[in-house]
Amino acid sequence: MNIDQASLQKIAHLARLEMPESAEKEMMDSLNSVLTWMEELNEIDTDNVKPLTHMSLEINAFREDKVIPNISREQGLKNAPKHDGMYFSVPKVMDS
Question: N or C: which end of the chain has fewer CB atoms below 10 A?
Answer without folding.
Answer: C
